[in-house]
Specification:
Elements lengths: L3 H15 L4 E6 L9 H8 L3 E8 L2 E7 L5 E7 L4 E6 L11 E7 L4 E6 L5 E5 L1 H9 L12 H9 L5 H6 L9 H11 L12 H20 L40 E5 L2 E5 L6
Antiparallel strand pairs: 1-6, 2-3, 3-4, 4-8, 5-7, 6-7, 9-10
Helix pairs in contact: 1-7, 4-7, 6-7
The structure holds zinc ion.
Length: 277
Amino acid sequence: VPELPEAETIVRGLRTPLVGRRVSDVEVLRSDLLVTPADELRDRMTGARFTRVRRRGKNLVLDLDSGESIESHLVVNLGMSGRLLHRPLDDQTPPPTHPGVRWTLDDGSLLIYHDVRRFGRLDLKSPAALRKWHRGLGPEPLSRAFTCERFLESLATSTSPVRTWLLDQRRVAGVGNIYANEALFLAGIHPETPARQVPRERARQLHRSLRSVLREAIRNRGTTLRDYRTAQGWEGSHAGRLRVYGRNGLPCFRCNTMIERIVFGGRSAFLCPRCQS
Ligand SMILES: [Zn+2]
């Protein structure tokens, strides 16, 4: 499931091919992926120019200028298995198997939204709708707004398990189950600890480890367990660097104790029972 590092990697891979390009054609092959009606998406995107490609939380935001200062923003939530792929004009690789939306750009290249399981969503928003959506999300963990003080204050207001807290996009944007588990391991915190009972020093460590694990994963172009691909169709290389996620039954890198898998909140959590007590 794509989280912040995967979305960031896709965004970085799309900036050069997209920014400045105009959309010459839009084909909607799977309208169930769209929040915006298909006709409206086609009308508003055809002829528009990409001005900026950015990320908010786990989402991709593609800014468009349709001329006469009409702006719109395509917000792409990749769901479980979404990919946003750029294919150059001379691309020799086989066409994607599950295309949902295909944009032809004015240089003949293609932008393809591909989604096997179809939990992803594409929403073309007005600037006002984008601002409202943006306000509903918590701070970006890699931004300066995400201070240790604010983090500690916010943790202290919640009795939820700390892993559940980390997954709440209103608390902090972009963290999903993989990086929540990894950060909790590095900080030595059991994932079920109620947020406000995390000792202060461990919470400070968690603030640091969350940021470091996200940065490390971005450097490795994200974690490919199955579906995730970069904009160029490559796998990320962070899967081999995971410390606890998916490693149940294998020895802890720190203490050799067997990593355990538990389930709460409907999601698996992975932990070292010795390092995270
Ligand atoms: Zn351990």
